[in-house]
Structures are given as C-alpha cells and as structure tokens.
Amino acid sequence: IAKNKAYDQAINSHNIEPVELGKLIFPDQINQPTIINKFRELIARVYLVDAISEVVYFNDKHINITIIALRDETQISGFAVLLQDLTKEHQLQKNLDISVANLSAIINSTDELIWSLDKEFRFVAFNSALANFYKNHFNLEPKIGHSGYSFLNTQEESMIQLRQLYALAFEGKKTTAEIAFGPIIGEVTVSPTINDKGEQIGISAIARDITTRKAFEKNLSDSKKRYKEVVNAVHDIIFQTDLEGNWTFLNKSWER
Predict the structure, then answer these.
(1) What confidence score (pLDDT) does residue 106 get?
(2) Which of the two residues, 79 and 11, has the higher pLDDT score?
(3) How far is CA 29 from CA 7, 49, 155, in A?
(4) How far is CA 176 from CA 92, 149, 201, in A?
(5) 79 pLDDT higher than 70
(6) Over the chain, what HEC string results?
(7) Which of 137, 163, 165, 230 is deepest in the core (most CB within 10 A)?
(8) Can you tell me the distance from the alpha carbon of 206 to that of 213, in angstroms, rounded to the nearest whole number?
(9) Contacting residues for 163 by C-beta, under 8 A, at least 6 apart
(10) What distance in Å separates the CA atoms of residue 44 and residue 243, rounded to the nearest whole number?
(11) What does the pLDDT average to over 84-110?
C-alpha cells in the first residue's frame, strides 16, 4: 500500500521492474528464499507481539528486518516494514570485539594492576590482577559500573595517598607515587582519561609491585652503611677516586 524509493532501488538491483502499489512486496521473480521465508516467519510472529525485529544474513549482508502491526480499531489491518542494511555496523562491531578481546588478553597477561574509573568513580575496566588484589587485600569483588571509591573513604595512609593521586588526575595531571598497601609496596601511576573530543571522561591507573626492588635498595643502602662503618673503624688509610683523580671517599684515618 506504500513504499519508499529505497525499496524500488533494492528491487532494481535485482534487475526487476519496480513493484506497483497493490502488488506483492516480494515479486515472484526474486529468488531469495532466506529473506522471504524469514519475512513470512516474522509476519506470523508479529500477530502475537505487535512489533518484532531480527537480523538476517544473506548475500554477504546483515539485514535488520523490523515489522510493526498496523491496527484498525482492534484487528490488524496491515504491517509497516523497515529493512536496514547493517553490514558496515556489523563489521565495525566485529572489529571492535576483536580489538577489545586482544586488549583484554594483553592487560590480563600482566601482573601489573590496571583499572579505569569514570567521573563518578565507577569502574569502567580492570584486569584480573586488580580483581585478585581487591579480593586478597580488601575482601571485595570489583564489578564494572560499581563504585571504586567506597573503600577509599578511610583514614589509612595508602587510601589518603590514592585519593590524592585521583584528585590530581581529575585536574588533568599524570602523577606517580609509591604507596604501601600493608607489606606490599606499589608504584602507582594515575592519568586522566581523554576521549577523541579532548574531553576528560575519567581516570586510568596502573600499579606495579615494587616490594622486592625496595627491599633490594634497602639492603644495598644498609650494606653501604656497614661498609662505611667498617672502613672508618680501621687504622689504615682508605680512599677512593674517580677516573679523573677526584676524591670520592676518604675514611676517618685519612682525616686523622
């Protein structure tokens, strides 16, 4: 009873004359049983639900078929049909899904904690390392869309430091700090998250466990201190120079 130009163009693409009003929506010359059978199936189902939509794949295209029942008082008098070619959108979504899967595989393969929050401090993304850390340290299970701020509302020194990093990130500043979470020392970097329009939409963070490194640095510092105490206690003169002959160390015996 009515059709638009896009319908005629689709019919013409099959080298078929445009269908006149009052004729069948799918002329007998069209040999596309997949879409015709799906169309008939949806027509039968729309009697029960008044409106229905489904994507059909045929001829290397993804076509979304939407059918809405038109009622005359209490009974169905006809149907409004919308056919949309979603092939490009489907391919973009497929590519996006692949990219997301690859990114997830990458961030979940590292021991570093990775997470991002929106402006309301809700989790947008996080990796498995962060989930395990939450469970072991806070006895909590982080979830996408849930607040990542509630546990911060304490007076623990680590939480105070993390709040400060978050605040600086929301001011547009990238900041790194060493934060002790109990026996674990983490190097935490928090950055603003910017969209393609240049707008800040949240913050992103990465934390790595540097406990072993800090212990090594402390041991090295203690060793240097003990070495200095030993060489200062002996009566022999001990000194060090660099390659240019400049003094770099003189013990107490030299001074005496």
Answers:
(1) 66
(2) 79
(3) 15, 31, 76
(4) 36, 19, 20
(5) yes
(6) CCCCHHHHHHHHCCCCCCCCCCCCCCCCCCCCHHHHHHHHHHHHHHHHHCEEEEEEEECCEEEEEEEEEEEECCEEEEEEEEEEECHHHHHHHHHHHHHHHHHHHHHHCCCCEEEEEECCCEEEEECHHHHHHHHHHHCCCCCCCCECCHHHCCCCHHHHHHHHHHHHHHCCCCEEEEEEECCEEEEEEEEEEECCCCCEEEEEEEEEECHHHHHHHHHHHHHHHHHHHHHHHCCCCCEEECCCCCEEEECHHHHC
(7) 165
(8) 17
(9) 152
(10) 92
(11) 75
Region 4-24: what's the mean pLDDT? 66
Other CB atoms within 10 A of residue 104 CB: 13
CA of 5: how far to CAs of 9, 39, 63, 98, 165, in Å? 6, 20, 17, 36, 58
Report which of 219, 222, 164, 173 is spatially closest to residue 194, judged by C-alpha positions: 173
Which pLDDT band, with edges at 50, 70 and 90, does 169 fall under?
A: very high
CA nearest neighbour of 144 among 207, 208, 209, 202? 202
CA 134 to chain CA mean position, Å: 18
Q: Is the pTM of this model over 0.70?
A: no
Residue 17 — φ and ψ, nearest 5°? -60, 145
- Distance (Å, rounded) from C-alpha 1 to C-alpha 23? 8
Q: Which residues pair with 157 in a beta bridge?
A: none
Q: How far apart are CA 53 and CA 61, in angstroms?
A: 16
Residue 97 has pLDDT above 90, yes or no: no
Residues 6 or more apart whose CB falls under 8 angstroms from that of 139 comprise: none
